[in-house]
Amino acid sequence: MGIYNSAPVKPRPEVFALMRNAHEVIRGASRDLAAALVLSDTVDKRTAVAQFRELWAPFIKFMQLHMKMEEGSGEAEGVFKMLDRLAKGSANNAGLHAEHSPIAGLERSVERALGPFGTHADLADRFRIFSEVNEAHLTVEQEAMMPAIKKLSEEGTDMRALMRQSAFAALSADETDFFVDYAVRTLEKHAEGHPRARVFVHALQAIAQDEAEWQRTHRIVQAALSAEAYAQVSAELVDMGAWGEGAYPPGQGPLMNAAGRGFCFSQI
Question: Which one of 66, 93, 137, 222 has the fewest CB atoms closer than 10 angstroms to its CB?
Fold first, then answer.
């Protein structure tokens, strides 16, 4: 065998994937919303609007929770202020603090089209505008945040503590449960050849404060994933049911798949 170990290399967690892959949740759910509005022989305008309305409410709830984690709430300073404090004002320099207000306005525009006087055509047009602006917004955030996060990680910053204190502390327990469930379901559906659900779940395992917290999250993850996806995620992680001993400590190294290849931030 020489100097190489034939055992598969287990992935190491990258905790900021919880924020980065939330963008993939939003993108995937946006595609589902657009698909709901497509008319066909079996889907008329009324049915399409009803399908859209059913998907819109949880989508907006997830969006708002994600923004809450970025902006901060209560004792959580939020990711933007954390980056300003630790990464030379990177969020402020990129104008991130002003990014959410236009998105909120476009959300309200879509909701007006869902009202009693809205039409399918109007709703489709307003959602198209919302989606285009929101995609540009996600790109701006990633271009500003990911280099700063990568640098902090390489410098040995405790990313686990930052994720817990700056982002997840903004959410209540019930909000966290919803956030995890919605994210995991959507990431499995919209994997697009990337291990998005696994990366997200592994990060959740890494930031858990104690075994009780991880077991609560673990139950949500197991219920949200298909049996096949859960088996795949379990096989790739150190110990899906474990917290602490037996699991990798929060690591700052690259994510690795079973073949030992790294995943860059843009791929996860």
Answer: 93
Give the pLDDT of residue 251: 38
Burial class (CB in 10 A: 0-12, 13-18, 19+), 58: middle
10-residue averages of pLDDT along the chain (268 residues): 45 88 98 98 97 98 98 95 96 97 97 96 98 98 95 93 96 97 98 94 91 91 95 75 45 31 34
Angle between helices 227-236 and 211-224 (to 10 degrees): 140
Q: Kindly report the length of the chain.
A: 268
Helix (H), strand (E), coil (C) string for 59-80: HHHHHHHHHHHHHCECCECCHH
Q: pTM (2 decimals)?
A: 0.87
Instruction: Give the C-alpha separation, 183 to 186, whole Å.
Output: 5
Which residues 6+ apart lie within 8 Å of 30 measured at CB? Answer: 59, 131, 134, 135
Q: Give, in order, the Cα–Cα distances in Å from 93 to each of 27, 112, 128, 138, 142.
A: 25, 33, 29, 16, 14
CA dihedral of residues 118, 22, 24, 253 (deg, nearest 10): 170
The residue ranges of every structural domain in the chain are: 17-267
Contacts of 175 (CB under 8 A, 6+ apart): 65
